[in-house]
């Protein structure tokens, strides 16, 4: 008795001498088991055996089914563990451990999958084993021991354990049902299967069938069985079926596509050509082609439309994992965000960990939530624009969305497709919050069943809806029945749901009214390898590159542990397996066969051919002339699924950058109607005017394109709003308490008042209540510390005010121009100024807070004074304007609106080195420290000592005249970039202003 290695030349279907060998073995032993790797190959072999009249003496099964059958006869009554039960019990074992006991491992789905693979292949060798001394291996072995105990407690056993026990039973009993086994195309031999086969070989006979492309495995198989004490014979060699062609003798064509943009069109054209050149079948009818690739469902999605346009139908079997379905994706995302929201509510983490909860918006967009896109957009805007909403506020808003959606559905007509769709967006989140996943899945299932198929897609909506329904039902079954039967909690069971998979058959019909030109079936190379020879009319091996068919051997913790335990898995090397599968897939065609690949990816990087491509090309002389190459030059043809050139193609000439068309110019300046019906420009604020004068293109981007930030932020803008609110409230309180302004005498009381105001405004901002545009809401300890740092800065501001402009006092705070009807430079002026200080003589100083560290950029010198470096006089340039004009604009407007004698336009930096800078009349410029004017500002208007002649009033008039000229250019449509770029230009200019002809 021995293990025989038998060489044969049959293809996917047993034939010729191979069938004769099986018949002789059945005659000798009475009962023979033929082991095959998959149910697909099992069915093929069963048909061949039936045609050969081998009878019931030949049992054709997979290795797992063989072990299961033997265990039913020879086992101890325990049931074999299924893949799902294994995942559930491994997860239960893992999550029952404390984090400290698991270190350096972590309890997560990835660890569950790793341990499940180890348990499947290595459990009988790992239980009670003395592993290596490293901590990770000790933890793994202890977990596998605990998992084995759980199996025993539930009357279960791993197939690997059963195989080891069956090996002993076969050695002792030598039952007739386990005296002969033939191994065919099983290219992975785990240690437990080798042990069982070795015992069968010693008691009877084991024959390992290897075809030519698998014979590189012969030495390895012989070594493994020899180590088990078996005698290995390698003398037998069989022939194949009569007339069988090998891949080496077939006529092959090669297609190389330059890049992914031309891939769909090129592949569709190639398939149409293959079907056209294929010989008619024996019974006529529609020709069939097979596309074998690594990811058939993805390629089907890309090619189905192109094939349908050419009159070719196509189909694919789609396997959808839990994480690939809407139900699975949304459940995982909601579980994650809910866990973070819970932790934030309990004070374990900061709110910044979950806000702005984009997962909830994605959930509302998903059809299974029962909401709609409009409600999702509104919810997203509200959540993102308010950092102070909090967990409870978000949940209330989610409940409001569900109520509004339900109310809208009740108002729909009875025949409306959405009238019976329940809104479950809030209740699903609540169920997950309450750790009730079954209820969550049932709610989603109710929405799926009520939704029209079109909600899941116009082309394949019905199929996708069926997939979602099946996945939701399967998840409910696992959590309610499978987990309960094993005494595993639902919370743990949800961790293994990613292992669930559903299958669906999809078909794209031909768009031709003249009948189908053929049918294309998409499948993996492994599935194509089990097709019967000459069973289809053409075969296309697609995407034959190293990314799709790598030659790497499996590495990782499972392989490492197997080696440490002396339980290595014997595997046919990837190159030989790929060669074998490709040869059988090629033989499945009775007509033409082609190989296709894409030579570059979307980044123009090389995609190298698979070894299969290189070998088959070399068999034909290795001549690159044999390879048909297709480029990406036909852009229109690549975009047109029909590929017939009937689509209208135009060449669009874009305008030069930064120039508007004539029809667009009227929309540049927005208009409004007055009470008498006249059209006048809308109000411009001083900041908008300053933005346009500084750089017209930046103004256009920020005020017309408006690429606004989605989320409420914690930036300098929000900090500036906070400072504005504090200082405004502070000066109001100063006046209410009878203090005209901050002075050295009341400085201590003023600082105490500042502390009170700061705390009050901070609390208001934390609740989202603010008079400014955006509240400063801290969502993390780091942001809280940044708010804490603002108070010392503002205390320095108050101390600075005590010695500045001592004759002036704040008179107008947050003064608005919107309702005054004031024109500036011929345009209506709006907006507000932070503060206007006035003295007893009616002189005024305009002050604008700037929450920035350096006030020097706001300095303004008399432009009639020659520059020291060049000697040029800035005022001689008729287009001269200062860089910062906001306070100057409002100063001129105040002269008209309130009749004030404006003597200064200042910017007050409230951060870093506190200072006031800008333009003032000469009487307010500091002459000596502590003189009660503007500290540190020594240049006034006019700068007489330097030879300047422009007084402050002339400055205001000159600026207004210059701005009037610029705004005239705005009305004419000028939005060109500034000649001298500002800091903001580097952020705004790249936003879509490089134009190309298309």
TrEMBL record:
Domain of life: Bacteria
Occurrences of domain PD-(D/E)XK endonuclease-like (ranges): 683-980
MF term (GO), any: helicase activity
Record keywords, A-Z: ATP-binding, DNA damage, DNA repair, Helicase, Hydrolase, Nucleotide-binding
InterPro entries reported for this sequence: PDDEXK-like_dom_sf, PDDEXK_AddAB-type
Gene Ontology terms describing biological process: DNA repair
Protein name: PD-(D/E)XK nuclease family protein
Native source organism of the sequence: Collinsella ihumii
């Amino acid at each position: 008795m021995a293990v025989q290695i038998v060489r044969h030349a049959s293809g996917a279907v047993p034939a010729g001498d191979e069938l004769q060998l099986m018949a002789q073995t059945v005659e000798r032993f009475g009962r023979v088991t033929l082991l095959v790797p998959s149910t697909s190959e099992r069915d093929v072999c069963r048909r061949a055996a039936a045609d050969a009249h081998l009878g019931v003496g030949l049992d054709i099964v997979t290795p797992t089914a063989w072990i299961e059958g033997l265990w039913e006869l020879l086992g101890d009554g325990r049931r074999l563990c299924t893949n799902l039960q294994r995942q559930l019990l491994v997860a239960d074992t893992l999550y029952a451990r404390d984090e400290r006991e698991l270190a350096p491992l972590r309890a997560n789905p990835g660890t569950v999958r790793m341990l499940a693979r180890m348990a499947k292949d290595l459990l009988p060798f790992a239980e009670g084993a003395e592993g290596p001394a490293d901590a990770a291996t000790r933890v793994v072995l202890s977990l596998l021991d605990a998992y084995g105990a759980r199996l025993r407690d539930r009357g279960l056993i791993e197939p690997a354990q059963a195989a080891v026990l069956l090996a002993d039973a076969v050695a002792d009993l030598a039952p007739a049902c386990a005296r002969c086994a033939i191994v065919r195309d099983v290219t992975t031999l785990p240690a437990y299967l080798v042990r069982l086969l070795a015992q069968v070989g010693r008691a009877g006979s084991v024959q390992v069938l290897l075809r030519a492309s698998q014979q590189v495995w012969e030495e390895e198989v012989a070594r493994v069985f020899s180590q088990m004490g078996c005698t290995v014979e390698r003398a037998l060699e069989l022939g194949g079926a009569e007339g069988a062609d090998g891949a080496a003798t077939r006529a092959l064509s090669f297609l190389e596509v330059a890049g992914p943009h031309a891939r769909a069109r090129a592949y569709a054209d190639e398939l149409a050509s293959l079907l056209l050149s294929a010989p008619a079948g024996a019974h006529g009818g529609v020709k069939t082609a097979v596309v074998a690739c690594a990811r058939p469902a993805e390629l089907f999605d890309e090619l189905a439309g192109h094939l349908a346009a050419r009159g070719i139908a196509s189909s694919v079997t789609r396997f959808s994992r839990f994480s690939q379905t809407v139900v699975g994706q949304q459940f995982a995302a909601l579980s994650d965000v809910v866990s973070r929201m819970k932790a934030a509510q309990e004070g374990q983490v900061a709110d910044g960990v979950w806000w702005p909860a984009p997962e909830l918006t994605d959930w509302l967009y998903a059809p299974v939530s029962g909401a709609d896109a409009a409600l999702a957009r509104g919810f997203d805007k509200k959540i993102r624009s308010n950092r102070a909403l909090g967990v409870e506020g978000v949940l209330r808003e989610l409940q409001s969305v569900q109520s509004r959606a339900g109310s809208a559905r009740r108002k729909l007509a009875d025949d409306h497709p959405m009238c019976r769709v329940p809104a479950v967006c809030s209740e699903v989140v609540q169920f997950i919050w309450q750790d009730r996943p079954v209820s969550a899945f049932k709610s989603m299932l109710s929405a799926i069943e009520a939704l029209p198929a079109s909600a899941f897609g116009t082309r394949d909506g019905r199929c996708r809806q069926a997939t979602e329904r099946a996945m939701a039902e399967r998840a409910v079954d696992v959590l309610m029945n499978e987990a309960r039967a094993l005494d595993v909690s639902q919370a743990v069971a949800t961790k293994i749901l990613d292992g669930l998979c559903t299958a669906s058959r999809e078909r794209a019909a031909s768009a031709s009214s003249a009948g189908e030109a053929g049918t294309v079936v998409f499948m993996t190379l492994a599935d194509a390898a089990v097709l019967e020879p000459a069973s289809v009319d053409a075969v296309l091996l697609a995407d034959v590159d190293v990314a799709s068919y790598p030659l790497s051997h499996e590495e990782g913790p499972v392989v490492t542990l197997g080696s440490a335990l002396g339980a290595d898995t014997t595997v046919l090397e990837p190159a030989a397996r790929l060669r074998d599968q490709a040869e059988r897939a090629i033989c499945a065609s009775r007509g033409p066969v082609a190989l296709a690949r894409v030579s570059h990816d979307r980044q123009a990087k090389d995609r190298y051919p698979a070894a299969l491509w290189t070998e088959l090309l070399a068999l034909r002389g290795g001549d690159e002339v044999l390879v048909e190459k297709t480029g990406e030059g036909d852009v229109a043809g690549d975009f047109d699924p029909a590929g017939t050139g009937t689509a209208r193609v135009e060449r669009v000439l874009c305008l030069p950058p930064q120039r508007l068309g004539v029809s667009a110019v009227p929309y540049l300046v927005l208009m409004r109607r007055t009470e008498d019906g006249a059209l006048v420009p809308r109000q411009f604020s001083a900041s908008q005017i300053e933005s346009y004068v500084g750089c017209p293109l930046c103004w256009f981007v920020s005020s017309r394109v408006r690429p606004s930030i989605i989320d409420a932020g914690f930036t300098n803008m929000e900090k500036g709003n906070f400072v504005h609110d504090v200082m405004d409230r502070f000066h109001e309180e100063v006046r209410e308490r009878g203090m005209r302004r901050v002075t050295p005498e009341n400085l201590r009381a003023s600082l105490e008042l500042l502390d009170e105001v700061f705390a009050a405004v901070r609390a208001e901002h934390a609740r989202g209540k603010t008079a400014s545009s955006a509240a400063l809401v801290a969502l993390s300890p780091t942001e809280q510390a940044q708010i804490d740092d603002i108070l010392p800065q503002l205390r320095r501001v108050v101390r600075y005010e005590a010695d500045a402009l001592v004759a002036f006092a704040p008179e107008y705070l947050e003064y608005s121009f919107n309702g005054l009807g004031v024109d500036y430079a011929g345009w209506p002026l709006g907006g507000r100024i932070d503060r206007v200080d006035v003295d007893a003589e009616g002189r005024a100083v305009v002050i604008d807070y700037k929450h920035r560290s350096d006030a020097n950029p706001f300095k303004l010198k008399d432009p009639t004074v020659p520059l020291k470096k060049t000697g040029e006089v800035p005022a001689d340039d008729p287009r001269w304007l200062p860089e910062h004009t906001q306070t100057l604009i409002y100063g001129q407007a105040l002269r008209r609106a309130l009749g004030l004698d404006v003597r200064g336009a200042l910017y007050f930096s409230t951060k870093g080195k506190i200072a006031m800078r800008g333009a003032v009349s000469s009487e307010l410029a500091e002459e000596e420290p502590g003189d009660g004017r503007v500290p540190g500002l020594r240049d006034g208007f006019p700068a007489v000592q330097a030879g300047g002649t422009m007084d402050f009033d002339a400055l205001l008039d000159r600026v207004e005249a210059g701005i009037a000229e610029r705004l005239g250019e705005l009305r004419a449509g000028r939005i060109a970039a500034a000649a001298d770029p500002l800091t903001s230009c580097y952020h705004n200019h790249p936003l879509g202003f490089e134009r190309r002809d298309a």
